[in-house]
Description:
Number of strands: 16
Largest sheet: 6 strands, mixed
Helix content: 40-55%
Oligomer: single chain
Shape: elongated
Strand content: 5-15%
Distance between the termini: 99 Å
Amino acid sequence: MHGDDLRYLREHQGYKRLLLGVAERYRSLGRFGGTVVLRDLTAAEQQVLSWHFRRDYSGQTRASVSVAKFAASLADTRFAAYSLQEIVEAYLGQPLTTKQAELERFEREREAFFQRLRQGCSGQWAATWLDAVLAGTAIGLRRVLQAYGRDAGAGLAGSLERVCVGLEMLERRTGGRGTFSGYGLRTSGPGDAGGGGGAGRVGSAGSAGSVGSAGSAGNAGSAGSERDRCRRADDAGRAHGTRGPKTAVPFPPSAKRRLSGGVPIPAAQWKPLRLPVFAAEVASDPHAFDLHTELGQILVDALCTALDRPAWHTRQDMLEVLYAAGVVGDEISNYVTCWGLLASRVNDAERQGGGRSQGCHGEEAGGDVDAGDVDAGADNSGGSFGSVDVGGVSGLRDSDGGGDRSSRRQIRSLPSGSVDKIWEAAHANRQILQVPLAWFDGLDQIWVPGVACESRKPTAGGQGFVVENAGVFSAILDGLGGSLGEPTDGEGCALICTTGQLKLAGLLLLDHLAASGAQLWYSGDFDPEGLVIAQKLVDRYGDQLRLWRYTVEDYAVSVSDQAISSRRLAMLDAVGDRRLEAVKVEMRRRKRAGYQEALVQLLVEDVRRAGG
């Protein structure tokens, strides 16, 4: 188009909205067609329309302009020598394109972006994550694609490169298998309540992600230098004794005992990384992977994908995933309270990969010892604790009258002299112990000392009674005779208080107890939150956890005047265990909460009977 004609078009404001509308219709339809609707017509627009369509538009405020008729009208204007496409492209200063073509180009560039990242990865974890992103199956996929839609340039490439560097560092430190897999609160497949899943394959048409600028992603040189810098920092830290050996194996042969769910118990070969320190080493920013940030959430998504874990839903889920990869987040305010437990700690030689000492029974410590028949707590039925035989670790009887159901549990022997002194002193003096997450660093086993054997040795069984209310926890201890060195009932039993919703420290302690063969019992409030906690624990521990005082009769004793809103009652939809069905029905009928405080005396009697 001649310069004078183009200048005329651009200077005359009457053409602006009309030509932009024509371009948008082409972008949508892939051809020149349809109608452009102009509202609140300006005087300049009325003038242009009057010129092209040979009618007076001066009194109109709205016009529907046929694109085909507008193209035909050009023959009677100074633009007769140009096609409509030539006019619109000259006005825009770029070729016309369709939405479908833009989407296909966007997806090609996006796939190439992630392919370049993938080619720069040397670790299996990072490769697994990026392969899943490319295949459209990664946990948190939508979060990554949305980040790409906002910034497809070097800024995002650098951020995701840091995630890959972090994955490679953690993979080397853990030998490629993580430090602790956990039981897993959810059994559903990958989805992403935290913002991922369901976005479609990265390179396929119709996948999620808004069309954004397709800036260059090329930072291969900086990617390599960043990875090399972090590897040097990793090696330097290891040389000063702050990191584990490069070839550290998280589950040595002697610690590969698996639970009924096929999950390895925690191993404690080396100290975990603190999240801010890890972030500073990888990204030169201690807050780069804070859990409220997008990059922190992408890192957790990537770990879920690489370690084949379910999608996270809560902050506690995120902390558990990080712990599985050897990173500790909140380790001081994240704590659990307990009474009546012992723990063993891996010594320095073992943490550096050395051999383990001989066990109490003359075998290699950590080897399997036949614990005999110990009841697995098969079918809870949700019955009152008082309705079952709890006279010791050998005779837990199903409350449905089905008889004893037992399973063989392999309990590891304890290396001589490795009982943790703090736990031992608290147990000897019948003191309450508040255990922060930091204390789990280096712990090998936690168990309920048995009545009929030396207290320092792990035993096949024991009873672990779990409550979430600190006041109820203290009241049970008071009922048993106190925790300040006085004689007490409840030998062979332990009390655990999670203090509200499940924290990682509480889950780790219960995981250890489950690994020791202990029978877990949970009692909580009769409100939606309490039943949801009970359901999560049942999902996690299966028949190794029994519901304690969760019958309709117990609810009737504990019911209060505190109303439960319809919104909270809807939370009961997440509770699917059949043993809680009758209680759910009654709670929905009464719409009132019940509280454990009214059951304290019954809870005390249950623990006293269990301890003989």
